[in-house]
Amino acid sequence: xxxxxxxxxxxxxxxxxxxxxxxxxxxxxxxxxxxxxxxxxxxxxxxxxxxxxxxxxxxxxxxxxxxxxxxxxxxxxxxxxxxxxxxxxxxxxxxxxxxxxxxxxxxxxxxxxxxxxxxxxxxxxxxxxxxxxxxxxxxxxxxxxxxxxxxxxxxxxxxxxxxxxxxxxxxxxxxxxxxxxxxxxxxxxxxxxxxxxxxxxxxxxxxxxxxxxxxxxxxxxxxxxxxxxxxxxxxxxxxxxxxxxxxxxxxxxxxxxxxxxxxxxxxxxxxxxxxxxxxxxxxxxxxxxxxxxxxxxxxxxxxxxxxxxxxxxxxxxxxxxxxxxxx
Length: 327
Hints:
Shape: globular
Helix content: over 70%
Radius of gyration: 21 Å
Number of strands: 0
Structural class: mainly alpha
Largest sheet: none
Order of helices and strands: HHHHHHHHHHHH
Number of helices: 12
Strand content: under 5%
Number of domains: 1
């Protein structure tokens, strides 16, 4: 290898390092701005319109507006627009293979939620900590028509589109130069941390990795958006619709139709998870076989990531949010 080749490799490594660190710094600022905007909006409501806090729809405003109307523009215009994306080869997935990749999501969602609940209960053994499922709290917040419509729009439409853009399209396009495996792992990790609590961290981490694998394999973000929407509809929106049925089961006289509906949903939910087990094994095998090896060695990748201030800022902010949500 001549001197020109060494200079090219050194410049390539420096370029990948700078792009990766700028991207991670952008996601760190994105996280901090989102937290600050969320707190500010809540404070303004407390000071000037406390009645809003008693409405069942305002919780969606607090969740969505700071994230997508404040933090995301900061991420895009402040960092991502200046960071060139890598090119990911585009390919199509046969319908049966695509459907076969949907079922493992239900498996990791159920398994991850069990792990998350167990970890949260462990923390609840210590003083000052409590095991509160924030997602369940949101689902229990109301049952008005407006709440149901907002729940559908935010859970099945906005979240799959925006979260796939943020944690798959934008993130992977700017970190895949380190290697597809590294990009998939980062996508799953940041997606899990983004949810801010142990109840959701584990299943969103594994769910995010499956979606990331699908994206690096096909280069088609629409595939992951559709899959995300399907899973959110079954695991997120349907339980919201069924919340009144769950509450009716606690009454002195239980409706037979309500009991049958809840039982049927649970059977379907866990049935899909069980059917997904062998397909999850196949998906893991495919990941190992189809993900391309990194052009950089482990010793080259490690300092690029571990010396990135943005990564530690993300972890630090996420740990703080996790702890606060346990109080």
